[in-house]
Specification:
single chain; 531 residues; alpha+beta; 5-stranded mixed sheet; 4-stranded mixed sheet; 20 strands; 34% helix; coiled coil; ion transport; cell membrane; calmodulin binding
């Protein structure tokens, strides 16, 4: 008050006050949405342990997501991201005695139109020149796109054809029924259920080194790497095991790529960079990006910052550390499960950890298995048995790497744990494990478990490197009267082998034949020659 006869100064002051109040309320809504989406992310990221059977090998336990990614995106994620406009529409309809207002429906339809045109346009525009992005789940995209178009057609039918200007109960009920049908059909497309199981499935390696699945002629597949098909059926069974192997292969491929790009970095820095690269490359939920955008806009902390600077031994590339068991059974696994060693290291130690029940004596066997590295040529094959005595939590054994003078690609091999059992000092009958407690009774122990990661990956970095070549001086200034000027080319980070390096001059502001003589030739570095 007063609300009449206001001067220009009053209008400006009140407008500024209303704007501040509106921004404050928007800030509150963003904070609530951030909490809501973070909670949804926690729910949809729940994990469970499943037993994976492998042909001709010991079964192992891997950690997988409880929620299907497609179902999570279409249910909780969509609800969380659209919660503000949905609540706004509900409040307005309730306040107006179930009559549509000017704000609610327009907000929802406007938000959908904004997503359809503006957001998709930005997503297409920001892709760098020369790069390509492809839809990960093309079948799911087609299904949801068809349902989206049908939703607008259905909206027109119920508002302009069957009952003009009124939404009747049966129309509302049928509309709500379309939602679970959308989720169900998208899930069928994602999991390749019903008729999809009759289609041929193949596996190939994409350009990032990730093993992916495709049907014959599937558009969503990326080009083959070196034209080679990768068949996982001979190695693992089940979607969980395939995801487990995909994650492992992606980490190894990333480490190799970084090794070639940064040959001068030490192993710890390479592993840290590879870990961050895998985290960045990995697909993330809608909630993750929503929370990231909100927090950065409001000056909050980066969600990814807590992962950066963490050594892979502390954060396993194959997944999170095993959860604490509800029952106190003995659980045995590798920690860490990925080792990166130079070829010249000789011997290094591998650690196996026990958690849970520390009372019974346990025996677990281990053996090495070839990957791209071969026993006898690149490393010394090993197998044996580890014995965990009462109270012991860590056991270590040594692996030997064979050093040679030949240049070769970085290679890897595996170490597997299997046949976990009670030690000879423990007595167990009828599948119950009992331990005598000095006459005070018996204590029953749960059967010990071999959990993920039960396989360790060892990456051998070749130190017989041919080297990295570059000019000593990036930029040189010379006078016209210099005549002939010699440029020095240096060989860094290795000098193995006879290497031919081509070179040529390229015009910028100076022109060949006028300001300088054009050159096109080859430099030959002999073995151990560095300049």
């Amino acid at each position: 008050m007063p609300d009449e006869g206001l001067g220009v100064g009053d209008r400006v002051a009140r407008g500024f006050a209303y704007l501040c109040a509106l921004l404050y309320l928007f800030l509150g809504v963003s904070i609530i949405s951030d909490r809501f989406m973070a909670a949804i992310e926690v729910i949809t990221s729940q994990e469970k342990e499943v037993v994976v059977k492998q042909k001709g090998k010991e079964s192992k336990i891997v950690v997988v997501r409880v929620w299907n990614e497609t179902v999570a995106n279409l249910t909780l994620m969509a609800l969380g991201s659209s919660a503000p406009e949905i609540l706004l529409s509900i409040i307005e309809i309730w306040a107006k005695n179930f009559e549509a207002g000017d704000l609610g429906p327009g907000t929802i339809v406007g938000s959908a139109a904004y997503n359809l045109y503006v957001i998709i346009a930005i997503c297409v525009f920001v892709i760098p020149d020369g790069e390509v992005r492809k839809i990960k789940h093309l079948r799911v995209f087609f299904v949801t796109a068809l349902w989206s178009v049908f939703a607008y057609v259905w909206l027109y039918v119920i508002l302009a054809v069957t009952s003009k200007g009124v939404v009747e109960v049966w129309e509302a009920f049928l509309t709500f029924l379309f939602f679970p049908l959308t989720v169900m059909t998208a899930y069928i497309a994602d999991r390749r259920l019903l008729f999809y199981k009759y289609l041929h499935k193949g596996y190939r390696m994409n350009q990032r080194g990730v093993v992916v699945q495709a049907e014959t002629g599937d558009v969503e597949m990326e080009k083959q790497l070196d034209g080679q098909m990768v068949d996982l059926e001979d190695e693992v069974e089940g979607e969980e095991a395939k995801a487990f192997e995909q994650n492992r292969r992606e980490y190894i491929a990333c480490l190799r790529e970084l090794r070639k790009r940064h040959p001068t970095l030490d192993l710890r820095a390479l592993e840290q960079m590879a870990q961050e690269e895998v985290l960045t490359r990995g697909s993330k939920s809608r909630a993750f990006y929503r929370v990231q955008a909100t927090r950065r806009m409001l000056g909050g902390s980066d969600v990814m910052r807590r992962f950066k600077g963490v050594h892979p031994s502390e954060m396993d590339p194959q997944g999170p550390a095993p959860a604490k068991p509800e029952h106190q059974c003995a659980r045995v696994f590798f920690k860490p499960s990925h080792y990166t060693v130079p070829e010249s290291i000789g011997e290094f130690e591998v650690s196996v950890v026990r958690e849970g029940d520390l009372v019974p004596t346990l025996l677990v066997d281990y053996r090495t298995e070839d990957g791209s590295a071969h026993a006898g040529c690149d490393y010394t094959g090993a197998q044996g048995t580890l014995r965990f005595a009462e109270g012991e939590t860590v056991k270590k054994f040594s692996i030997t790497v064979i050093d040679d003078d030949e240049f070769e690609e970085d290679e890897h091999f595996y170490i597997r744990l299997f046949n976990l059992r009670l030690g000879p000092s423990d007595d167990h009958e009828n599948n119950d494990i009992r331990n005598n407690l000095g006459g005070s009774g018996t204590r029953v122990h749960a059967v010990p478990e071999l959990i993920s990661p039960s396989t360790a990956t060892v990456m051998i970095l070749d130190d017989d490197h041919c080297g990295v070549f570059g000019f000593v001086d990036k930029e040189v200034e010379v006078v016209e009267s210099v005549g002939t000027y010699e440029l020095r080319v240096k060989r860094f980070s290795g000098s193995r082998g006879r290497i031919l390096v081509p070179y040529k001059t390229v015009d910028v502001t100076a022109r060949a034949g006028k300001e300088y003589e054009q050159l096109n030739g080859e430099l030959i570095f002999e073995n151990n020659e560095t300049e």
